[in-house]
Amino acid sequence: MDWSDKVEAYNIDDTCARYNNQSTEVQSYPHSAKLEESASTPETWAKFTQEKLDRAESERLASVNLRGLIDCILRDTGEDLRLQCDAVNLAFQRRCEELEDARVKLELHLHKTLREITDQEHNVAALKQAIKDKEVPLKVAQTRLYQRSHRPNVELCRDAAQLRLVSEVEELNVSLAALREKLLEAEQSLRNLEDTRMSLEKDIAVKTNSLFIDRQKCMTHRARYPTILRLAGYQ
Q1: Which of 114, 118, 169 is nearest to 141 (CA)?
Q2: Which of 37, 112, 141, 211 has minimal CB crowding within 10 Å?
């Protein structure tokens, strides 16, 4: 306000300085010589102006100090944010290493499981073939016993051949029962291995997706994290 008043007063005095006896803009103002009671004196004017200058200088210095404090706060905040960014990046890197290590271990376990599945499939096939191979001799022995049961009268004798056939049927039945039990165990083991395979493949897919999110999405965006100067507002 004081500055605009002085500009206006300067313009008025400048206009007045240009007036002379040949000026056409001059008029008669009979009461203009009367001093206003509210008018200031040169002393009060100078004092008022100096107070304004002192206050302005004080405000300027306060503003300079405030800007310095703000710059310091912004710089410290930028450095803190940058340090936090580095800490987060390090945490991401370690997490990615952990995920990669876990995925590699899961893939190794999956390869072992696939080999075990192949071996167990061969084992199941071998057991089925062994059962099939024993079923034919069993049928032969049973057929012999059936036919010999039709021997007439006293010829229906428990001779050595008859006893050996009965023993052979019993042995074959015991062997087949053991093979069928082993087949059931092998088939259950194969199902368990298949379940393990699916679980491992699911875990590997999850780990791969997590790595993609952390590396390709999060870390890519974080690579464009602003510098300290930009965080402090200097760029």
Answers
A1: 169
A2: 37
Q: What letter does residue 154 receive in the DSSP assignment?
A: G
Encode pLDDT of 132-169 as tens digits: 999 888 888 888 878 887 888 777 787 888 889 888 88
- If DSSP codes are grouped into helix, strand and coil, which group holds residue 7? helix
DSSP 8-state code for residue 214: I
The pTM of the full predicted model, rounded to 2 decimals, is 0.59
| Residue (of 228, 223, 230) closest to 78 by Cα position | 228
Asked if 75 and 228 count as a contact pair (C-beta separation under 8 A), the reply is yes
> Residue 179's pLDDT band (boundaries 50, 70, 90)?
very high
Residue 222 in contact with residue 92, Cβ under 8 Å?
yes
With beta carbons less than 8 A apart as the criterion, state whether 226 and 163 touch: no
Interatomic CA distance for residues 104 and 211, integer angstroms: 12
Residue with structure tokens 């965080």? 231
Rounded CA separation 72/65 (Å):
10
228/74 Cα distance (integer angstroms): 9
